[in-house]
Amino acid sequence: MTRLTTALAAGALVALTGCAPAPQQEAKKEAPAAPSYKAPAVPGFTDMTVPADNPMTKAKADLGHMLYYDKRVSGDESKSCYSCHVKEKGLTDGLPTAVGAYSAKLTRAAPTMWNVGYYPALYWDGRSPSLEKQVLGAMGGGNMGCTGKDGKPDVDGCVARIAGLEGYKKGFEAAFGPGPITKENFAKAVAAFMRTIVATDSAWFKFRSGDTAAFSEAAQRGWKVFSEKAKCTNCHDGLLLTDMQFHNVGIGMDAAKPDLGRGAISKEEKDNGAFKTPTLLDVAKSGPYFHNGSVKTLEEAVDLMSNGGKKNKWLDTTNLKPANLTKAEKADVVAFLKSLDVNYTIPDPTLP
Ligand code: HEC
Ligand code: HEC
Asked: Which of 14, 92, 94, 241 is the most buried (most CB within 10 A)?
């Protein structure tokens, strides 16, 4: 976690629960501060960081909540953000690789949205440094299809479509004050909402805080195998079960033209075929697995990982070694993974 902590400290970010960026005296001279809003947080985890220019407010998160669930913001009005990140599927879409607006075939699997606000870098390859940038990326790309090409609306066009609706006029004004509805504020609101997609209720958190009985005996044994014998925690570490780093475990490397993942972004050969360690929260619901959705079941995923991943030139053999698990041990690891479910308590919003 050291690299992560440094990355966070170095960024121009303020702690979510910490002070506003402006010094105290200055704040007094200006209009009274917005009523403090306490966003949900993973119990016992480090504070989330939010960009200084997009502090959390309830008005913003509420607005983002509506926008995130509204299909009218995609190019052909067929997809909302939520369409590919649904609760029944562990906040993914259940497909091997996602299908965007205009039936666009995407090349990667939709990852879960749990706790995305805690990541210093977004996407399987970490190419997006903030949720605000990520929203504009998703809008202008294949996911939401506001590409501005072949007669399709661009991001401004997609945002303008909902700008005339009374409910949104009110929502934007409450969140950002009077003024035109811009794609930048759209992105800020959706990002603020995503920072509230936080897992607060899971047997895993109870277990980790000392309530052993929150887990079945098989799950308890599975955790021991996962963390001790198989050392899965070399990467799936901490309360969120991810080190938020990139590793090559060999998925899809046997393709004719493999997806180089992190390597294509960092341009460093050692990063070829490396992808962000996914959280394993809600993993029982989020199949098919891996960045290319190539594995259908948890059993197969555990087999693959406990055998040391798939051989290729850049495999991370420092952190991932064959663990030689028995059949019973693998079953226990699966029982452990099935105990990482999260209870989803976010209501569907009423759309304007
Ligand atoms: C068509 C399905 C689809 C739609 C619609 C969609 N997404 Fe995604 N989402 C994906 C896929 C696929 C990825 C992974 C892409 C990659 O890593 O290259 C992803 C990745 C993400 C990530 C990064 C998560 C992480 O762990 O790094 C965030 C955040 C996200 N989406 C939010 C959104 C938002 C906000 C919207 C609406 C503006 C949206 N998504 C619409 C499929 C979709
Ligand atoms: C070297 C770091 C590392 C180690 C050690 C590791 N994993 Fe992973 N794990 C990853 C990465 C990276 C991915 C995503 C790879 C991809 O999609 O290309 C992943 C993906 C997964 C997935 C699929 C999750 C999803 O949402 O698609 C499961 C399940 C999983 N690992 C379980 C395990 C288990 C069980 C162990 C121990 C036997 C383990 N992992 C050890 C890094 C690691």
From this structure: 92
Q: For residue 210, give every residue at least 6 positions away whose Cβ sits within 8 Å of its Cβ, in sequence order, or none.
A: none
- Give the tens place of pLDDT for each residue, 264-280: 999 999 999 999 999 99
**In terms of C-beta density within 10 A (0-12 exposed, 13-18 middle, 19 or more buried), how is residue 12 classed?**
exposed
User: Which carries the bigger pLDDT value, residue 111 or residue 3?
Assistant: 111
Say how many Å lie between the CA of residue 293 and the centre of ligand 2: 13
Q: Which atom of ligand 1 is nearest to the CA of 68?
A: 37
Radius of gyration of the chain (CA): 21
- CA quadruple 52, 56, 57, 63: dihedral positive or negative? positive
Q: Which of 120, 97, 85, 86 is nearest to 242 (CA)?
A: 120
Is residue 282 within 8 Å of 111, Cβ to Cβ?
no
Q: How confident is the model at residue 34 (pLDDT cuts 50, 70, 90)?
A: low
Tally of CA atoms within 13 A in the half-sphere of 222 that contains its CB: 21
Q: Would you say 18 and 47 are in contact if contact means Cβ atoms under 8 Å apart?
A: yes
Measured distance CA(22)–CA(31) in Å, rounded: 13
| Residue whose CA is at the smallest distance from ligand 1 atom 35 | 135
CA distance 202 to 219: 14
Q: Which ligand is in closest contact with the Cα of 193?
A: 1
